[in-house]
């Protein structure tokens, strides 16, 4: 089973490490990592601009974005829905993150 190591440093300075299980039909782990970096960076940036945003709202928006992208795939809906469920279950099943505080993050 292919895994993708992933490390992200949160705005508060915590480094979070994961070992994500990849779907067998993953085209490029490098592209997955690049997209994930951009998505998480954009989310952190937007939450910083918006201010008080509850985690449930973030998760709801991400779930809806997944639903929109799933519907955009030109294939049979049953197949795309199964694929979306499978990749989410794999990602959630990989959640055994390791946290390490890295200190203040940002520019002086």
What does this structure look like?
- By secondary structure, the chain is an alpha+beta fold.
- The chain has one domain (3-101).
- It has 3 helices and 3 strands; from the N terminus they run ββαααβ.
- It has helices at 29-50, 55-72, 77-93, and strands at 3-9, 14-21, 98-101.
- A 3-stranded antiparallel sheet has the order 1-2-3, covered by helices on one side.
- A hairpin with a 4-residue loop joins strand 1 and strand 2.
- Helix 2 (55-72) runs antiparallel to helix 3 (77-93).
- The longest helix has 22 residues, at 29-50.
- The chain is globular.
- The model has no long low-confidence stretch (mean pLDDT 90).
Largest sheet: 3 strands, antiparallel
How many beta strands in the DSSP annotation? 3
Question: Helix-strand pattern, N to C?
Answer: EEHHHE
Summing up helix and strand content along with how strands pair, one would put the structural category as alpha+beta
Strand content: 15-25%
What value does the Rg take, in angstroms? 16 Å
Strand order of the largest sheet: 1-2-3
Task: Note poorly predicted spans.
Answer: none
Helix content: 40-55%
Q: Let me know the average pLDDT.
A: 90
Brief summary:
With 108 residues, this protein is of the alpha+beta class. Helix content is 53%, strand content 18%.
Q: How are the SSEs placed, and which strands pair?
A:
Blueprint: E1 3-9, E2 14-21, H1 29-50, H2 55-72, H3 77-93, E3 98-101
Antiparallel strand pairs: 1-2, 2-3
